[in-house]
Structures are given as C-alpha cells and as structure tokens.
Amino acid sequence: MIIIGKLLLSVFLGGLIGFIVSLMNSRRELDKPYKVDGKIYFGFIYDVFVGAIAALLAITILVPGALDLEYPSIIGISTIAGLSGESILLSQQLHASEEKRKMLEAAEEKLIAEIKRQIDNEKSKE
Predict the structure, then answer these.
(1) Structure pTM?
(2) Tens digits of per-residue pLDDT, 50-60?
(3) Burial of residue 13 (number of CB atoms within 10 Å: 0-12, 13-18, 19+)
(4) How far is CA 43 from CA 22, 32, 35, 56, 79, in A?
(5) Contacts with 79 (C-beta within 8 Å, 6 or more apart), sequence order
(6) Model confidence over 18-61: pLDDT tens digits?
(7) Which of 2, 34, 72, 80 is the most buried (most CB within 10 A)?
C-alpha cells in the first residue's frame, strides 16, 4: 500500500509541475483545450499529463530502487522529472518550428527560381 501511495504522490507532483510550467509559459493564463480544423489541442491538460507520466516513469524505470526511498527523495525525483518532461516538450516544439522554417525557405527558393525562369522566358520571346 505504501508503494501505491508513493506512485500516486509522484504522479501528482509531476502533474502539478506540468501545470505550473504551463502557467508560466502561457503568461498566467491557461491554454484551454480547443478544436481547429478537426484537430484537438489539449492545452494545459497535455502539459499536466506529460509531467505526470514523466514523474511516474522516473520513479518506476529510471531510478532503480526509487520506491524504496523516503518521501523527500521521491518528491525531488518527481519534481525534476516533471520539469524534464516539459523541457522535452519545448525542444520538440523548437524542432518542429525549425523544420517548418526550413520548409518555408525551400518553398520560397523554388518560387523565386520559377519567377526568374518565367521572366527569362518572357525576355527571350521579345
């Protein structure tokens, strides 16, 4: 029964850290879930879920024997894991925006090349 309590504490703290980080990232206004073009964005619920899962994984998998530790150690591990989960999310968002920027630059270069080609074709017709 103590193990279940430690797991629940870990999940709660990871989710709480996810919630706090979500508040900090969104300038103290919660990003509420919404639907756009058939896609559902979960907003702050996603951050809470990621923090909770990261803490649970840290306690059960990453730190051997973590469930045998005292509560202060579990609190520390869960807090760090919740923050790490959020940093992983932020790095994924950064990577996605970098990929989008690269795609836009490639499209822009193709468009410029096509425009130059059309201009050259019109000049050669004259």
Answers:
(1) 0.65
(2) 889 888 888 88
(3) buried
(4) 8, 5, 10, 21, 21
(5) 13, 14, 17, 55
(6) 888 888 877 767 778 888 888 888 888 888 888 898 888 888 88
(7) 80
